[in-house]
Amino acid sequence: MQVYVNGEIKELPEATSLAQLIAQLELAPTRIALELNRLVVRRADWSATILSADDRIEIVHFVGGGCDRGMFRRMEQALIRI
């Protein structure tokens, strides 16, 4: 089945979960946030969220730099809640 990941077409097996997609892409799950069809998906739901043909997945990578420790901690806490 075809899905769109950050605007690019990816071919995936049927019944692929978001967690499986992240593993296939070899991404560190602690440093990303996922949006599926314009809705943010909580990290706790990635394994149970099964993709369908033509789904649109946006992956946002969090990178460090340019912030103080307090800002970094707030960003880290926000990631934990996702």
Features of this protein?
82 residues; alpha+beta
Describe this protein's structure.
- It is a single chain.
- The protein is of the alpha+beta class.
- It has a single domain (2-81), classed as Ubiquitin-like (UB roll) (Roll).
- Helices cover 24% and strands 27% of the residues.
- β1 and β2 form a beta hairpin.
- It starts with a strand and ends with a helix.
- The model has no long low-confidence stretch (mean pLDDT 86).
Q: Per the principal axes of the C-alpha atoms, what is the gross shape?
A: elongated
Low-confidence stretches: none
Q: Give the biggest beta sheet.
A: 5 strands, mixed
How large is the share of residues in beta strands? 25-35%
For the CA atoms, what is the radius of gyration? Answer: 14 Å
Number of domains: 1
**Any idea of the CATH topology?**
Ubiquitin-like (UB roll)
Q: State the helicity in percent bands.
A: 10-25%
Q: Please provide the ordered H/E string of secondary-structure elements.
A: EEHEEEH
Q: Order the strands across the largest sheet as they lie in space.
A: 2-1-5-3-4
Average pLDDT reading? 86
Structural class estimated from helices and strands? alpha+beta
Superfamily (CATH H level) name: Beta-grasp domain
Short description:
The protein has 2 helices and 5 strands, in the order ββαβββα. The chain is α+β, with helices and mostly antiparallel strands and 82 residues long.
